[in-house]
Write a structure and sequence with these properties.
Helix 6 runs antiparallel to helix 7 and helix 13 (265-276) runs antiparallel to helix 14. The longest helix has 18 residues, at 113-130. The strands form two sheets. This protein has a nine-stranded mixed beta sheet, with helices on both faces. The protein has a three-stranded antiparallel beta sheet with strand order 2-4-3. It has helices spanning 7-18, 34-39, 42-45, 66-74, 113-130, 144-153, 158-167, 171-182, 192-200, 205-216, 226-241, 246-256, 265-276, 281-296, 341-344, 360-363; strands spanning 23-24, 30-32, 50-52, 58-61, 81-90, 99-108, 138-143, 259-261, 304-307, 320-325, 331-337, 353-359. 45% of the residues lie in helices and 18% in strands. Strand 10 and strand 11 (331-337) form a beta hairpin. With 368 residues, the chain is an alpha+beta fold.
């Protein structure tokens, strides 16, 4: 059993990461909460330990390292940069324990995204092997950018593209969104003159609602003014109109069902595009170029699987997402590309980024 919390083991992990060309980052355990609340997504937001600082600002125990490392980088100069870390993170409601140890590398500013993606996966696999992870190791890979390209190609309404993109990687949320997309939103039982005015977008809708409320003796107070009711009703009518043709929903479900060895992924994507009659050639070419970079980096492609529905429950990912499982089936690494994150955190220019985190508590029992 590895005790990764011991000083000697931490020092060894740090040496392994520094040996891969990364510089150890100095990241405080107590972090400003807003960057996580603004960029990390609902899944992580629900698990943050928060408090009010002496200056009145919200602070939290760090729930992950990517955002703190990126914030620390913005206080420094120089790109490209590779930052390593080993330390505790804290999340509520976690079965394995709410305080646990993570290690990883954040690779910032490399313009060659394919090489950087391949390096992230290669660094993760080689670090796991050095730490004694049980082999064989298997990689599941997804791609937010391919999913976004499919949404555009299927010509789904813009609002639905946003909702579906937000649900990417969450099986339950995606199923709910697909069901809602296929079925018109339910509307309340309305008087005929109100329903007609709402459907037509009539300027008289507010006045008609106000008249009916007056006749019924209903006061216009708080959020129940005629104007507010008209606004909500118009929104429901609009939402009901934003459904997709059934064949488009079926095509999207067909795409999300793709789950193949990486060596078969390009053929599967091309087959989907041909069957659906959509143009995603640019996204497929970019995907194929990344496969070439993985092969050049010496990564065994027969250990990598592509799942079109696979994503990660953090809003800042933009392209490649991946996880690594050990021989026990435990997820021991998660990572991906986050090209918008540093601008969201205050960078004045775009800075590409990709990284990975090792879940050391899950790995601890792998080696003697």
């Amino acid at each position: 059993m590895n005790d990764f919390n011991s000083f000697s083991h931490r020092a060894r992990i740090e040496d392994l990461l520094v040996g891969r060309g990364a510089k150890l980052a100095a990241v405080d355990m107590l972090q400003p909460a807003e960057p996580f609340l603004d960029t990390a997504g609902d899944e992580l937001r629900r698990r943050i330990f928060m408090a009010r600082g002496v200056d009145g600002r919200n602070v939290c125990l760090r729930p992950e390292f990517t955002i703190p490392v990126c914030l620390a980088h913005l206080r420094e100069d120089g790109l490209p940069a590779r930052h390593a870390y080993v330390g505790e993170v804290f999340r509520q409601g976690r079965v394995e324990g709410m305080e646990f140890l993570q290690a990883g590398i954040e690779d910032l500013g490399d313009p060659n995204r394919n090489e950087a993606d391949a390096r992230a996966i290669g660094d993760a696999l080689q670090t796991l092997q050095a730490l004694g992870a049980k082999s064989p190791l298997s990689v599941t890979l997804g791609d937010q950018s391919v999913f976004d390209a499919v949404l555009r190609a299927l010509e789904l309404p813009a609002g639905w593209r946003v909702r579906l993109a937000d649900a990417f990687g969450d099986v339950g949320a995606m199923a709910a969104q697909l069901a809602a997309l296929a079925e018109p939103a339910a509307l309340p039982d309305l008087p005929a003159h109100i329903a007609a005015a709402a459907r037509d977008g009539s300027d008289d809708l507010t006045a008609l609602i106000a008249t009916d409320m007056e006749k019924a003796g209903l006061p216009q107070v708080g959020g129940r003014t005629a104007a507010n009711i008209a606004k909500r009703l118009t929104g429901k009518i609009k939402e009901a109109s934003l459904t997709a043709a059934p064949e488009r929903v079926a095509q999207l479900e067909s795409f999300l069902a793709i789950d193949v060895p990486l060596t078969e992924a390009v053929a599967a994507l091309e087959g989907f595009a041909d069957a659906a009659g959509v143009e995603i050639e640019t996204a497929i070419d970019a995907f194929n170029a990344r496969i070439a970079a993985l092969r050049s980096a010496g990564i065994a492609l027969d250990s990598v699987n592509y799942a079109a529905s696979f994503g990660r429950a953090l809003d800042y990912y933009t392209g490649l997402v991946f996880e690594v499982r050990d021989a026990n089936g435990s997820i021991v690494v998660g990572g991906g590309r986050y090209d918008r994150l540093l601008e969201m955190l205050g960078a004045t220019d775009p800075i590409p980024g990709v990284g990975f985190s090792i879940w050391l508590d899950r790995l601890a029992g792998d080696a003697p």
